[in-house]
Amino acid sequence: MTSSCGCTDNERTGLSRRGLLGRALTAGAAGALAGLVGEGLSTQVAFAAPDAAYTGDVLVVLSLRGGFDGLSAVVPHGDPDYYRARPTISVPKARLLAGDAMFGLHPALAPLLPWWRSGDLAAVHAVGQPNPSRSHFAAMEELERAAAGTSLRTGWLDRMLGLGGATDAFNAVSLGSALAPRVLAGPSPDLSLRSVDGFVLHGDSENSPMARTLRTLYDGAPAVLAAPAQAADSALATAANLRAAGYPPANGAAYPATALGNAMRDVARLVKAGVGLRAACVDFGDWDMHEGLGTPVTGQQMYDHLTELSLALAAFATDLGAAGLNRVTLLTVSEFGRRVQENGSRGADHGNGNAMLVLGGNVNGGRVYGRWPGLAPARLVAGDLAGTTDYRAVIGEVLRSRCGITDVGAVFPGVKPAGFGLVA
In what helix (H) or strand (E) does residue 34 lie, and over which residues does it extend? Predict the structure, then answer.
């Protein structure tokens, strides 16, 4: 069982914000619009119009909520202080995968080894926020706003979409939850849905034609009023046709029967359907392992959670195939890392510096990027791994090189993209 730190902000908090035809419309099957689509809509539109104006990668942001322990996933075995600080929860060097002189991967990441070896998967270590916090809510709020020292209230992904001229609801989709993440807060259109197949208008039927009534209600209305309804109508039509077409994963991909596996399957589905997807957000939580983080064997918390993560990502990459993966860059983020020293409960408390994973056909992978600060006590920041690279600089390099964003400073104020050569 995953332990909790007991913080009142440890759970996902929904934030009030604008949305497509009112955010209430995308509230889920129990809400007004968990998925929309009636029979009459499915004959109107084949799919959303192809997004010919955008030629960049689909950016997939996988949020590892709860405080991902990068020191367990990408292990600095070449730093002797790692083993001194973690006498019971460290990963033995002999168990590590794809090791170099300093780093190796946790054995539970074995499903991802083919992409590490082919150069499609990389890691960046010792990343952090400019103003670190050990509060889950405060740290995630700032991670997704990504504008420290400014009064900006929008999310960084919304700002990216605005710079790229995104206009369609399927340009940005949050999968797996009807609550939109803070990173999408702002004026750019987006959809939040639990699943593609579940995106139907609750209660809509031939005898209760709610969708048709919605269209009629806004027919001829001023654009400021009609546009959200028309966008919802279009999104419903696209989802109806996706559902009617079905989706068998390609290349023998086998997604795990988990919430993460289902969400990643839907992301791959949208990438391949040509609905105009530019960005997708997926959450994968329960990384708050204060107790019993465990040794690297099946049945232990960290091992099992990393296994779930790696199986879902491996299925996603397999499903897309080489051609599909060349159109995608996926990166992981988390609100903070864990402390270097294990605690008395054989877990790790809230920390600072962390590791990011980056997956895509244009990633220069098979290696760990970043400046390693060391784990000697004198090198730590209040007991934590120092964040030597701003996580925004890592994302900024991807935005500039793969998503066509020339003014990265408009997305991340005051931040210059990293020059790692992380992506082609």
Answer: none
Do 133 and 146 meet the contact criterion of CB atoms below 8 Å apart? no
Q: How far apart are CA 89 and CA 171, in angstroms?
A: 42
Q: What residue ranges define each of the domains in the chain, with the CATH number in brackets?
A: 48-196+247-410 (3.40.720)
Alpha carbon separation from 310 to 117, 213, 260, 283, 359 (Å, rounded): 15, 45, 10, 14, 11
Contact between 125 and 369 (Cβ < 8 Å): yes
What is the per-residue DSSP string for 106-150? -GGGGGGHHHHHTT-EEEEEEEE-SS--S-HHHHHHHHHH--TTS
Q: How many CB atoms lie within 10 A of CB 80?
A: 11
For the entire predicted model, the pTM comes to 0.89
Q: At what angle do helices 259-273 and 301-325 cross, to 10 degrees?
A: 10
Contacts for 142 with CB less than 8 Å, ≥ 6 apart? 129, 131, 133, 148
253-259 LR contacts (CB < 8 Å, sep 24+): 253/315, 253/316, 253/318, 253/319, 254/315, 255/311, 255/312, 255/315, 255/316, 255/319, 256/308, 256/311, 256/312, 256/315, 258/308, 258/312, 259/176, 259/284
Mean pLDDT by groups of 10 residues along the chain of 424 residues: 51 35 33 28 35 88 98 98 98 97 98 98 98 96 97 97 93 91 94 92 73 81 81 86 96 98 98 96 98 97 98 98 98 98 98 98 98 98 97 98 97 98 98
Which residues lie closer than 8 Å to 328 by C-beta, 6 or more apart?
57, 58, 60, 271, 320, 359, 360, 361
**Single-letter code of the amino acid located at 110:** A
Q: Which helix (H) or strand (E) holds 311?
A: helix 301-325
Bridging pattern class, strands 104-105 and 354-360: unpaired
**Gap between the Cα atoms of 185 and 169, Å rounded:** 14
Residues recorded for the chain: 424
Cβ contact 27:83 at 8 Å: no
Which residues partner with 74 through β-bridges? 105
Sign of the Cα pseudo-torsion (310, 315, 316, 321, in order): positive
C-alpha 163, offset from chain centre: 20
The kind and range of the H/E element at 260 are: helix 259-273
